[in-house]
Design brief:
With about 280 residues, this protein is of the alpha/beta class. It has 9 helices and 12 strands. Helix 1 runs parallel beside helix 2.
Length: about 280
């Protein structure tokens, strides 16, 4: 049973991710959505200090559990209204979020995709899940879809794939995700960002990339684009915006969103991306 995992909290950011999960499940033939809620100290202050010791306020804990049940009811109903044939499961975990995600993945091998809501620049939320996007995406063995808070689902027709012309072997990862790239009317836009002004990509490397794409992705309309920007993230997002793309696919390697975000600031990448979801492949 093809399954999507959606970690949730009490914000509209993760509610929007659940809406996207229902649409994604319908379009890409998933049959099951798992909603994961963690009961963590970081979400509210339920510890009191007395004589050097801390103890749990039972009333606050019970209140949180009741709110959690109501939230899960609300989101399950939302999925049922959008996709009545999709099975919905709930998991409430006492562990930290990243550990909870990886434990669920270990126990449910049918999960093929994690969908994470991301606060964006226009958002007033402080999503608990959004704060853990990078740690989840880095440790998860399955692909991860990051959804900006104000993103509204539209059918994916135009996909931008940032790639490094010096490492075309990373494109092999695309072949494991054909349900996304081989949809009807889908167009792939491969983008190489050159960060050194005045230095051009050699004709041999360009030709090797063209031949590779032609050989392995013959049936899919595609084009290759070369651009210059000192900042890879801004170069990708500017290109995506000007070409009205619907999805960014992040491959492993130097041009990956995940690689860049892990070594820079999360706000420099995901929070700048208010228009398109980002699919991080493994």
């Amino acid at each position: 049973m093809r399954t999507i995992l959606v970690p949730i909290d009490f914000t509209s950011t993760t509610e929007n991710a659940v809406k996207l999960a229902a649409e994604w499940a319908k379009h890409y033939d998933y049959e099951h959505i798992v909603l994961l809620k963690t009961v963590g100290e970081s979400e509210f202050d339920y510890l009191h200090i007395a004589e050097g010791h801390s103890f749990v306020n039972e009333e606050n804990v019970n209140s949180l559990l009741k709110r959690t049940d109501l939230l899960l009811d609300q989101l399950s109903k939302m999925i049922a209204e959008k996709a009545p044939h999709i099975k919905v499961s709930r998991i409430v975990s006492d562990w930290a979020l990243t550990r909870s995600v990886n434990e669920v993945l270990k126990n449910q091998p049918s999960i093929e995709l994690i969908i994470l809501g991301s606060d964006d620049q226009a958002s007033s939320n402080e999503s608990f899940v959004s704060d853990h996007i990078i740690s989840i995406a880095r440790t998860s063995p399955v692909k991860t879809l990051i959804v900006p808070d104000h993103y509204t689902y539209t059918p994916v027709k135009k996909i931008i794939i940032p790639c490094d012309v010096k490492s075309i072997a990373t494109l092999e990862r695309l072949f494991h995700h054909q349900s996304v790239i081989r949809q009807k009317d889908v167009q792939l836009l491969f983008l190489n960002i050159n960060t050194k002004e005045g230095s051009d990509i050699s004709p041999d490397k360009k030709r090797a990339l063209e031949e590779y794409i032609h050989q392995h992705l013959t049936e899919i309309p595609s084009s290759i684009h070369y651009s210059y920007d000192e900042n890879i993230i801004s170069g990708i997002l500017n290109f995506a915006s000007s070409n009205e793309t619907d999805l960014i696919i992040a491959l492993p390697g130097r041009h990956s969103f995940l690689y860049y975000l892990a070594s820079r600031s999360i706000s420099e990448g995901i929070y700048q991306n208010t228009n398109q979801p980002v699919l991080i492949l493994k």
